Amino acid sequence: MENIKSWTAEDEAIIATNTDATECKRCAVELGYWKDDYISYFVRHVDRKAPEINRGYYARVRAMEIFIHQFLERCGTKCQIINLGCGFDTLYWRLKDTTQAVGNFIELDFPAVTSKKCHIIKRNKQLLQKIANEDGEVMIREGDLHSDGYHLLGCDLRCLAEVRRKLAAAGAGPHAPALVLAECVLVYLRPDAADALLRHLAAAFPRCALLVYEQCNLGDKFGEVMVRNLSARGCVVAGARLAGSPAAQAERLAALGFDAARAWDMEAVWRSFPEEDRARVEALEMLDERELLLQLNSHYALCVATRGDIFADMDLNA
Fold first, then answer.
1. Do the beta carbons of residue 262 and residue 301 sit within 8 Å?
2. Would the annotation count 123 as a binding residue?
3. Is 60 labelled a binding residue?
4. pLDDT tens, 50-66?
5. Does 183 belong to an annotated binding site?
6. How many other CB atoms are found less than 10 A from the CB of residue 132?
7. Is 280 annotated as a binding residue?
């Protein structure tokens, strides 16, 4: 039996960021920014968010999709995806509706988050039937959910021994290419804990790609306000590490055991999208605060780190 931990106020504040992100995604989906038939199971109707927030989430989701598709194009569906700090992300179900359902999909987050996600899955047939195997079997053991090709595991990412144990229980290993997703999760880990986790992943998966979405350039005035706002909510972020540019973040990933790494701020990501995509999104809502969106985009980055020749050419414009 797992040891029962008492979560700190900071842990609870980090857990609450999942609710915020899910609400923002549902709002953007309702407005037509992208299609997600499953987000409504995880959060009820929400108040409308500011246009710059909706557009920022669209850029984040679209950019992640671009690289996920590149990964699957290179290795096919006989691979594994590991979603760190998964929250109420619906990627598994969205991939399941395409020809790109992967062999093994593993999600890790605080037990408080995964237990709620597990409960939502169990009570909604549309979610449950897509994770059941041919016999319709879904096993729930010690708060973790296991099925044929999908695993939802409660885990403290700051504890490397626990991460290793959970990944092993989910069947993760060096036998298949791995895609690791980390959206706004490493920022809440102490630098030493985040580095230890990334070093382990780089060593454990000789053919892998890592996608990291988090803040950058926090050393200026706008960044200081972002850090203060998070601190006011009880979230302490690794501000010193995130003060650097996207390029500095890529250098850090390369130094932790990946063969190569590259990064872009979200303004560069937005400009890389096809003109017709940007025109469609810009037509959805009037944006009064263009300067605010530019500032937000310049303070978030997408980093891609890879191991193995098969992924060496993964790029924003590939």
1. no
2. no
3. yes
4. 999 999 999 999 999 99
5. yes
6. 13
7. no
